[in-house]
Amino acid sequence: KVSMEDLQRLTWENAIAVKLQLSPDSITSPVRPNPIYVLVSRQGFLSSLGAQAWPHFQHVLPSLPGQQNQQLAWFDYKHLPLRGNLPIGVLFDLLGSDEACGSSIPWELTVHYTAQPEALASWQNGLPQHVQYFHSLKEACFISRGPDGSAAVMKMTGPAQDSLWSAVEGAETSRYLEILSSLKMVPASRQEGVSASLPCRLIVRTFTGSLLDLWDTTFMTSRPVSATRPDGAWTTLNDVLSDLLPDLQFPASGS
Q1: What whole-number distance in Å separates Cα of residue 238 and Cα of residue 255?
Q2: CB–CB of 132/144 below 8 Å?
């Protein structure tokens, strides 16, 4: 029998093969460097991929006074800028795993070390990826444990936050779970007779045309989900999808 800890570990160890090439607009050398091939955790973010790419490409990058090129890294897939606030696994599921998008393994991405497109800056709201991550974590803890949950995130020291973010980027399962356990995120009922709530974020892709229009036709929704149904049975994924997307038809629970 597989334990919950084993499932968490297997999930974190799941990786995606990526072929990463440097964009021509970031090259100052007459010779284009070879692409690199890396395995990246589905749980990680693009910033971790940028850190892996930097040592291989830095010798041909332009030098920008007063700026560190490594921090300017952004990525595209077939000329579509990728949102850095979404985990790599989510991005791959939206794009690289779909035959309509021309799926292939390894997943072929391009890295840029130039000024970001305006669309990327607006999606990030001027916030670094790790700051957006902790905003989402605080929201999830509030849904799970109420004010005590969100307060636990806000009380984390700077070194503790850095350690947690480092574990996320490095897919270090044991360290991540150890730090996260201190937040006591296990959902708990806050009112007698009311089921505990689970944090849920649903990303829905609706585009059918050009790949470059994907972000204009993709929406996200975050909301609490009850752990049990009114009849006392466990809430299923079908229940959640039917509730969040009432206009679509999903198989009945148990079918």
Answers
A1: 10
A2: no
253 with 238: CB under 8 angstroms? Answer: yes
The predicted structure's pLDDT at residue 34: 92
Give this prediction's pTM.
0.83
Name the phi and psi angles at 50, rounded to 5.
-65, -35
C-beta separation of 169 from 48 below 8 A: yes
Is residue 182 within a helix (H) or strand (E), and if so which, with residue range?
none
- The token pair at 227 is 């752990």
* CB burial readout 162-190, b (16+ within 10 A) else e: ebbbebbbebbbeebeebbeebebebeee
**Tens digit of each residue's pLDDT (9 = 90 or more) over 146-157:** 888 899 999 999
The contacts of residue 178 (CB under 8 Å, 6+ apart) are: none
Contacts of 234 (CB under 8 A, 6+ apart): 227, 228
Q: 83: closest CA among 173, 199, 200, 216?
A: 216
Read off the tokens for 70.
């490594």
Beta-bridge partner residues of 205: 218
Strand ranges, E, within 175-217: 197-205
